[in-house]
Structure formats: C-alpha cells, structure tokens
Amino acid sequence: MSENSTHPRGLRELVYARLPEGASPVDTACHPLHRRIIERAGGDVIEETTRKLGAALGGRAHIVLEIRDGDLDPARDHELMGLLTQTDGGVLVFGVAYETADESSVP
Fold first, then answer.
1. pLDDT of residue 5 exceeding 70
2. pLDDT digits (tens, 9 = 90+) for 83-104
3. DSSP string over 69-80
4. For residue 94, which of 47, 10, 32 has the smallest C-alpha distance?
5. pLDDT value for 2
6. CB under 8 Å to 103, separation ≥6 — which residues?
7. Contact 102, 23 (CB under 8 A)
8. Tell me, what DSSP letter sits at residue 84?
9. Range 30-59 burial, b when 16+ CB lie within 10 A, else e
10. Rounded to an integer, what distance in angstroms lies between the CA atom of residue 88 and that of residue 91?
C-alpha cells in the first residue's frame, strides 16, 4: 500500500478507496509484523498473516491490506502510527470486514 508514501492519506482513505461502492465497515483487525520477522521469514510471513487475518474475519466480505511507513497520516492515525513505529520498518496487516447496502437490509 505504499504507493502513496509521499503523501499520506490516512487510514480511512486507504480503506474506503478499496471497499466496493456502498459498503460499510463492520469490523477491523490488525496484526503488526516487525521488520526483523519479515527479514527472517521473507515475504511469506506477510502472505500468511494476510491469509490468517482474512480467515479471522470469518465468512464476511472483507479486504486485507498492508500498511507501511508513509501510508498513514500522523495527525489522524495516532494509534496505528504508534503500532507501525514499533515495527521498526515493518508492516501492519490490516483487515476490514464490510457489508453492502443489500446485506445490511436483510433482517
């Protein structure tokens, strides 16, 4: 997700830009991966964490994205900025479960 690293947009923009039209977030999960873990395990650890986080969100529709240094806006994303800083150059694997307007209107 670091394609926007020179101009942070903030978590809300990163997430909402990836959701289908009319979708509303209903749950989130986050897993920090320290730089040293990534270096030792390679990119596979990110892929495996992404898979596990998606499974943890259950059968609901969801997206999982990687958040890297420069992706967040420090003025708005204080809590996640702290987690990201603790990864020492690693990533946050962030998942969002969502509902569409059709799903949320079902009794």
1. no
2. 999 999 999 999 999 999 775 5
3. TTSS-TTT-HHH
4. 32
5. 44
6. 61
7. no
8. H
9. bbbbeeebbeeeeeebbeebbeebbeebee
10. 9
Short-list 80, 100, 96, 90, CA closest to 10: 80
Per-residue pLDDT tens over the stretch 19-70: 999 999 999 999 999 999 999 997 799 999 999 999 999 889 999 999 999 9
Backbone torsion region of residue 25, taken as left when φ is above 0, otherwise alpha when ψ lies between -120 and 50, otherwise beta: beta
> Is the entire prediction scored with pTM above 0.90?
no
- Cα(48)–Cα(26) distance, integer angstroms: 23
- Closest listed residue to residue 67, CA positions, set 19, 27, 15: 15
Residue with tokens 């991966």: 33
